[in-house]
C-alpha cells in the first residue's frame, strides 16, 4: 500500500507505519491539531511481516506493531490489548454458538502457520497426526478471502477480522487463546522531539506535558513486566488446553475399553 503523506509547512515530518487492524486516525487528528506546522505521514502495512522491516529500511520513523516483535535495537511501548476471534466460512457450525474454545477447533485446518497460534497448534489433530498441509505466507486480507471460499479458518485479533470482514464469513470470540497487544516502536538511536511528541499523543498526554528520558525508560520497563505477565498467562492457558485434550483422549479410551469388555 502506498504512503499517505501530509506535507509540513516547515519541512519536518513524522512517518508512522501501522499493521492491519490498527486505526491511528484519532492520533493523527490530534497531531495535526497540536502541531499544524509539522507533517505526519501514514504508512499502512499489508501484514505484520513488515512491522520491523519498515523501521530498518527507512520507510518509517515509528511503527504501530502487534507483539511479539524482535525488540533488539528498538524502543517498545505496549498500548492496548486485542481480543482474538476465529473467522470461519458462512454456515460453519460455530454460527450456532456465541463463542468457542480453542479445543473445539482441533479438527479445523488453520490458514496460518501453526506457530502463529500456538494454542491451536498444541491441540490440532492435523499437527498431531502429521497430516497437515502447509500453507504459504499470506496477508490477512487474502487469508480471510480463502476462509470465505471454504479453505479453512483463521484466528486473528477482532480488529483485523473487522477490517477485512466479508459476507461469506462469520466470526466468533475464541477462548483459550492469548490476547494480542498493539505497541508503538521506534529505533533506539532515533530519539527526538517529534518522537516524544507522538508518544505523548498516543498516551493521551496534554500538549503542555513533558517527559524526561528517564521516565520513558521507566515506562518501557513497566511495559516489559506487563508483557511478561501476559506471556505467562498465555502459557498457562495453553497448558490447560493440553490437559483438557489429554483428559478427553483418556475418557474416550476408557469408554472404548468398557465397550470391548461387554462384548
What does this structure look like?
This protein has helices spanning 25-34, 53-56, 118-121, 125-128, 140-148, 158-163, 193-202, 213-262; strands at residues 13-18, 39-44, 62-66, 74-82, 84-89, 100-101, 154-157, 169-175, 180-187. By secondary structure, it is an alpha/beta fold. The chain has a five-stranded mixed beta sheet. Strands 6-8-5-7 form a four-stranded mixed beta sheet. The longest helix is centred in the C-terminal third of the chain and has 50 residues, at 213-262. The chain is elongated. The N and C termini lie far apart (65 Å). Residues 1-10 have low confidence and may be disordered.
Short description:
The chain has eight helices and nine strands.
Task: Provide key terms for this protein.
disordered N terminus; four-stranded mixed sheet; 8 helices; 2 domains; five-stranded mixed sheet; 20% strand; 263 residues; alpha/beta; elongated; D-Maltodextrin-Binding Protein, domain 2; LysR_subst-bd; DNA-binding
Topology, element by element:
Blueprint: E1 13-18, H1 25-34, E2 39-44, H2 53-56, E3 62-66, E4 74-82, E5 84-89, E6 100-101, H3 118-121, H4 125-128, H5 140-148, E7 154-157, H6 158-163, E8 169-175, E9 180-187, H7 193-202, H8 213-262
